Amino acid sequence: MPIQNQVQMSKIAIMQPYIFPYIGHFQLIYATDVYVFYDDVNYINRGWINRNKILLNGKEQLFTIPCIDASQNKLIKDVQVLNDKSISKVLTTISAAYKKSPYFTDVFPIIEKTLRFEGDMPISQLAVNSIVSVCAYLDIKRNFKVCSEQGYNNIELRKADRLIDICHKERIDHYINAAGGRAIYSKEYYAERGIKLDFLISERKDYPQFNNTFVPWLSIIDVLMFNSKEEINNVLMQSYHLE
Questions:
Q1: Burial class (CB in 10 A: 0-12, 13-18, 19+), 149
Q2: Residue 5: is its pLDDT beyond 80?
Q3: Fewer Cβ in 10 A, N or C end of the chain?
């Protein structure tokens, strides 16, 4: 991925790369100017780096991208995807789940292009590709950066201090984190170091999922299959707040 020159921006988000994440991550992208894929931190077993949920027969269904010797002792960028028939099975499951959805013919080729690749690839790159491809489809243009490619040279810092250091090196003083960060990050700690910290809270937005009872917070795949680009961009722009 080409690295863009540093410029003065107003807001930044720094998040691990997740495979086709839920809409809250895209709201985070929408709300910021610079989005850093935090790929040189430890892999999380049974997390959302290589798996997510779709709707299948009216119920949520987990899909998983297989990885080789995945371990929390490895960095995300060092965990390789197992590029075998399992990925074809994932695509078959997604196709079966959504082939009758209104935007299947527009969206499925994007998913297929992302998940079908030749040779070796780390799960971090595949997850980045999944997010960037969705943003391209939605015409969302942001300054995307991959942490391990930036030369921040701060991997020895503890978690909060490393994020603050990235903000300083990007010359940005407003950091927006996902809602889950409220449990581990202190606004006061960031403020004392010159960074305003806000948390993005996604607001549930129901939409028709065939004739089923609505199942919220699935992969962005589900949102794409049932909503137009305009509808999705309205949700990205309006259906969240900062705390």
A1: middle
A2: no
A3: C
